[in-house]
Amino acid sequence: KQEVTQIPAALSVPEGENLVLNCSFTDSAIYNLQWFRQDPGKGLTSLLLIQSSQREQTSGRLNASLDKSSGRSTLYIAASQPGDSATYLCAVRGGGGTNAGKSTFGDGTTLTVKP
Amino acid sequence: GAVVSQHPSWVICKSGTSVKIECRSLDFQATTMFWYRQFPKQSLMLMATSNEGSKATYEQGVEKDKFLINHASLTLSTLTVTSAHPEDSSFYICSARVGLAGGGSSTDTQYFGPGTRLTVL
After folding, report:
1. Does the pLDDT of residue A63 top 90, yes or no?
2. pLDDT at residue A95 above 90?
3. Best residue of A36, A38, A45, A49 to probe chain B, by most B CBs closer than 10 Å
4. Residues in chain A closer than 8 A to B96 (CB atoms)
């Protein structure tokens, strides 16, 4: 069974800082890995999706990396802004076996960026 | 881009009633739809996988007789919470999977709906 862990659970930083969120997973047989943002009481906003054959994806101030063999992904946020405050979820989509096609989510990292 | 909608976006009901939540893929056909549940301050947990025209596959610990899933067409899946109780209060999110014919692995994509917040009094 796939297990996804996100560290830290919560993070508070002053505006302007660069930060890294971590995601680790136990089963490296993945199809892809996706980072989402979730605001309180809201649904999911997809940020970046990395296919299993890729090593990183970039969108604006966000950069996500994937090291499938070690079961790790990082989300790098540059020059953080108060509007970045949200919970960031990592989801791993299974590539085979009983996990095939299913997404397993981490518990998330709740980010607070202080003005 | 592909859009998945859910209806209703929120619902409040009395204990013992049944509630139906719809998940629609608006501009594509979804071979598979997934239903997730998110309790407050927790992450999303997969409840079941539904394929069009066949019975849903439920994750361990999810009562199939309580959470009825119907996937009657390639664009619509419904989740019915039967005899809802306060402990069923949660945020329910669906996702729709599409794999384009003739495409490679990168074309198998999953799109998430905006979620439905259920409160059972």
Report:
1. yes
2. no
3. A38
4. none
Per the listing, tokens 């076996």 go with A97
pLDDT of residue B98: 78
* Choice between B76 and B99, residue whose per-residue pLDDT is larger: B76
Contact B46 A101 (CB under 8 A): no
Cβ proximity of B71 and B33 under 8 Å: yes
The SS3 of residue A84 is helix
How far apart are the C-alpha atoms of B103 and A41, rounded to whole Å? Answer: 36
Determine which of B43, B46, B111 to mutate to test the interface with A (most A C-beta atoms within 10 Å): B43
In the predicted model, what is the mean pLDDT of chain B?
Answer: 89
**A103·B46 Cβ contact <8 A:** yes
User: pLDDT tens digit string along B25-72?
Assistant: 998 888 899 999 999 888 899 999 998 888 899 999 999 999 999 988
Q: What is the pLDDT of residues A97-115, one digit of tens each?
A: 777 778 999 999 999 999 9
Chain B residues whose C-beta is within 8 A of a chain A C-beta are: 32, 34, 36, 42-46, 49, 93, 95, 97, 105-106, 108, 110, 112-115, 117
CB contact under 8 Å between A101 and B112, yes or no, is no
